[in-house]
Amino acid sequence: MIRFVLSPQGVVTPDIRRRLPGRGVWIDAAQDSVARAVSRKVFPRAFKSQAETPASLAGDVASLLRRAALQRLALAQKAGLVTFGFEKVRARLASGPVAGLICASDAADDGRNKLLALAKKAQHLHKDKVVADVFSSAELESTLGRHRVVHAALSPGQASDLFFSDALRVRGFETEPLHDVGNREQLDGQGFAGPLNL
To answer: For residue range 142-154, what is the model confidence (pLDDT) as tens digits?
Structure first.
């Protein structure tokens, strides 16, 4: 779920890292859920105040989630956990376990499939098979400061785990369909507010 708080100016603000002070409203971590909450004016009811809700809120959350995940990737690179380039990733898979693979969203299917087959054959994915494929090569290049980044492997480590967790969150937010069971908001600090019909 995504937490939202009110800024001092009374604007609904996403709290991606769940660290901002104040009373929070929780919305399902799906773009459709946030967009529907905006259109149905859920936030003013949930906050019980004149909450200014940007029409672009769902898109803003998507951008913030992507930025947060890429910041984790940059930290993993600083920790020396990132190997990039098809041949280097292939060699890395042959040398030992990896936390997961990154394939650019605009990567060719054949290269992606070859690396997945190698990872499966070597049984060197650290946990369950984890592949981050939600970021374009341009986003990866900008984050890693390298030209032509299409494939990468991350060695096991906390920074790698945090990146893949955030990448899965991005994927879920951007692709998760709206479903009836999860359409609810919750207020923290004041207890559960109960279902609000979206």
So the answer is: 999 988 899 999 9
Distance CA 61, CA 63 (A): 5
**pLDDT over 70 percentage in the chain:** 84
Sole residue written with tokens 């990896």: 98
What is the spatial distance between Cα 88 and Cα 69, in angstroms, rounded to a whole number? 23
Model pTM? 0.82
**Which tens digit of pLDDT belongs to each residue from 3-13?**
999 999 999 99
What is the rounded distance in angstroms from the CA atom of residue 178 to the CA atom of residue 23?
A: 25
Distance CA 17, CA 25 (A): 14
Of the candidates 75, 60, 62, the residue with the CA atom closest to the CA atom of residue 143: 75
Separation CA 140–CA 150 (nearest Å) = 8
